[in-house]
Amino acid sequence: QVDEFQLPGAKASTMVEGIDVDAIIDGHRQWKVKLRDAIEKGDKVDAATLSRDDCCALGKWIYADGQRLSGRASFTALIGNHAHFHKVAGEVAQLINAGRNEEAEDALAPDTPFTNATSDVVMVLSAAKRLGFV
Questions:
Q1: Is the CA virtual torsion 12, 27, 123, 134 positive or negative?
Q2: Cβ contacts of 114 within 8 Å, gap of 6 or more
Q3: Taking the model in full, what pTM does it have?
Q4: What are the DSSP calls for 4-38, one per residue?
Q5: Strands 19-20 and 15-16
Q6: Residue 38 above 80 pLDDT?
Q7: Long-range residue pairs from 70-76, CB within 8 A, at least 24 positions apart, any chain
Q8: Which of 5, 30, 64, 115 is the most buried (most CB within 10 A)?
Q9: Three-class SS string for 60-90?
């Protein structure tokens, strides 16, 4: 939590192994906001793309330049956590698209697979921000 503290108006950029970790963390956290907005507005979500872990900036990096880190435990954990995040986020998107908004809202609540998956990705990236991928 402390790693993510920033003063208002401060634009931080922490590059680790060629990726902007702060931007990646923010992007994955923003999915909760995007999914809530879709529920409120009655919008559809591209669940097929969201379910894939190779379409976002982090996924593209993981399956390209990041492969040079494939022997590192924290990178392996990131792959698993990131894939799980996108699977769970895609499931929430499917609920939204099916009009099951109450279930989708419940799926975004604290201590659910979605919020836990988000935290797991953030945790690995925050550690990488401090220590690199080890």
A1: negative
A2: 32, 88, 89, 92, 107, 108
A3: 0.88
A4: G---TT-----EETTEEHHHHHHHHHHHHHHHHHH
A5: antiparallel
A6: yes
A7: 72/133, 72/134, 73/134, 74/124, 74/127, 74/128, 74/131, 74/133, 74/134, 75/133
A8: 115
A9: HHHCCHHHHHCCCHHHHHHHHHHHHHHHHHH
Q: How far apart are CA 61 and CA 54, in angstroms?
A: 8
- pLDDT band at residue 34 using 50, 70 and 90 as cut-offs: very high
134, 73 Cβ separation under 8 angstroms: yes
Taking the alpha carbons of 108, 112, 117, 123 in that order, is the dihedral positive or negative? positive
Backbone angles phi, psi at 15, to 5 degrees: -85, 125
Q: What is the DSSP letter of 109?
A: S
Q: What are phi and psi of 109, to 5 degrees?
A: -70, 165
The total number of residues shown for the chain amounts to: 134
